[in-house]
Design goal:
Elements: H1 3-11, E1 15-21, H2 27-37, E2 43-45, E3 54-61, H3 68-72, E4 76-84, E5 86-88, E6 97-100, H4 110-121, E7 123-127, E8 132-135, E9 144-147, E10 155-168, E11 171-178, H5 184-195, E12 199-209, E13 212-213, E14 218-219, H6 220-223, H7 228-232, H8 238-241
Parallel strand pairs: 1-14, 3-12
Antiparallel strand pairs: 1-3, 2-3, 4-11, 4-12, 5-6, 7-10, 8-9, 10-11, 12-13
Helix pairs in contact: 4-5
């Protein structure tokens, strides 16, 4: 099949391609890469993922954009690494340092961390966005700090599970399952305040998004070199993607 025919074949397909987005790559770049590489007119996504995070990111082709809202309502699972003893204006390591504090082992131990997570964050909680966010623009490798909508009301979000994977002061690793709009970055900042020592999100990986796990994702590096027919084989039809 000639290359133009392959591209035309792919352009006629509607569906979802789960991609494993690397940390440091803006989700918009993933969408634009698919659009340019395969000469597609209609490419969208099933929910954003911060530039500093890695993991499951859904690319939508053609009329799959009609089920965007359905996909965005899916639950997510994350693995997060936090550093205690520091507070920034973005609640991650890219922001401006507001304060540092000692992490005293007798005051901040794993039992207290688990107790705070259980009492303050598990279930339905009102969560406020950090005032600032770190973003990447126009292929830049340097993060730009921008102000978010500071006047937005706290959002009601749901955390089904938050488990301590490891605690090696001052590094705390968590695994969690949460619903739409929940922000592990916001959780990191809020947890630091509850513990009294501050905390920032150091790394974040989305391990699942609805019915899609990281194991089933197309690696972004492979996407950059594959041809149109191989990419077309990775397209999941809309009914299958939404579980119909």
């Amino acid at each position: 099949m000639a290359n133009l025919e392959r591209i035309a074949y792919l352009a006629a397909k509607d569906g979802v391609v789960p991609v494993d987005k690397p940390a440091g790559v803006p989700f918009q770049e993933v969408v634009q890469t698919v659009k340019r590489r395969f000469n597609l007119a209609k490419v969208g996504h099933g929910g954003s993922l911060e530039a500093a995070a890695s993991g499951v990111f859904l690319v939508l082709l053609g009329d799959a954009s009609r089920v965007t809202q359905h996909l965005m309502c899916a639950d997510r699972e994350y693995e997060a690494e936090l550093r205690l003893g520091i507070e920034t204006d973005t609640a991650d390591t890219q922001g401006r340092v507001l304060r540092t504090a000692a992490v005293e082992a007798e005051l901040v131990d794993v039992d207290r961390i688990r107790a705070v997570l259980d009492s303050e964050f598990r279930g339905d909680v009102f969560e406020s966005k950090p005032r600032f966010s770190a973003i990447l623009r126009n292929g830049s490798t340097s993060y730009e700090i921008v102000e978010t909508d500071a006047k937005s009301a706290p959002r009601l979000v749901h955390y089904y599970r938050i488990a301590v994977a490891s605690w090696e002061p001052p590094v705390l690793k968590l695994s969690m399952k949460c619903g739409k709009d929940a922000s592990p970055r916001a959780l990191a900042g809020a947890l630091g305040k509850c513990l009294g020592c501050g905390a920032v999100l150091c790394s974040l990986r989305r391990t699942s998004f609805g019915r899609f796990s990281a194991d089933c994702c197309l690696q972004y590096e492979k996407l950059l070199t594959m041809n149109a027919m191989d990419f077309a084989e990775r397209v999941i039809p809309v009914p299958e993607a939404v579980g119909r």
